[in-house]
């Protein structure tokens, strides 16, 4: 098993590419169900990523249903690829979603929410290790965003696959997860 980010990224992109639509739906539902026991439901503002279907990311539709069923404030983002910054918006019935040039579904506009108001962030990832380090696509959007959040903001990775033992090339600026949830288990860091 590789241990550096570049090789792990490639390995997990290939594993994800091999998943069928049925597997993605089944595993995404299992991930959402495994969120239920987490001690997060007294919080108000939950940031959720909308999946890039073409990259076979965890389908967060089940997470969205869970959050709206619990009457939570749901926050989604728009990414600026020049500054690598994310702007966050409240997801309401009136929110219009449009895919950007990278196939990321994003809000067109809406009520803006500051990073400092967000209580829980569901973080997309390709791989993670048993220490809570994660690997994304390498653009640094989430590390930058998570650094803007309050220290007590709960960071939860969502993954189809289990943890690797170690990621060797972790940077100081990489923000660790508090939890990672897979279809099979909950990792606590």
Can you characterise this structure?
Pfam families: 5-FTHF_cyc-lig. One of its GO terms (biological process) is folic acid-containing compound biosynthetic process. GO terms for molecular function: 5-formyltetrahydrofolate cyclo-ligase activity; ATP binding; metal ion binding. Its cofactor is Mg(2+). Its EC number is 6.3.3.2. The chain is α/β, with parallel strands linked by helices. The protein has one domain: Rossmann fold. It is 24% helix and 24% strand. It has 4 helices and 12 strands; from the N terminus they run ααβαββββββββαβββ. The chain has helices at residues 5-17, 21-35, 61-69, 141-148; strands at 45-47, 73-80, 85-90, 97-99, 105-107, 112-113, 120-124, 127-128, 134-135, 154-158, 179-181, 186-188. Strands 6-3-2-1-7-10-11-12 form an 8-stranded mixed sheet, sandwiched between helices. A two-stranded antiparallel sheet has the order 4-5. It has a two-stranded antiparallel ribbon with strand order 8-9. A hairpin with a 4-residue loop joins strand 11 (179-181) and strand 12. It starts with a helix and ends with a strand.
Summarize the structure.
The protein is α/β, with parallel strands linked by helices and 189 residues long.
Whole-number total of structural domains: 1
Taken as a percent bin, the fraction of beta residues is 15-25%
- Portion of residues in helices? 10-25%
Number of strands: 12
- Show unreliable segments: none
CATH A-level architecture: 3-Layer(aba) Sandwich
Could you spell the SSE succession in H and E letters?
HHEHEEEEEEEEHEEE
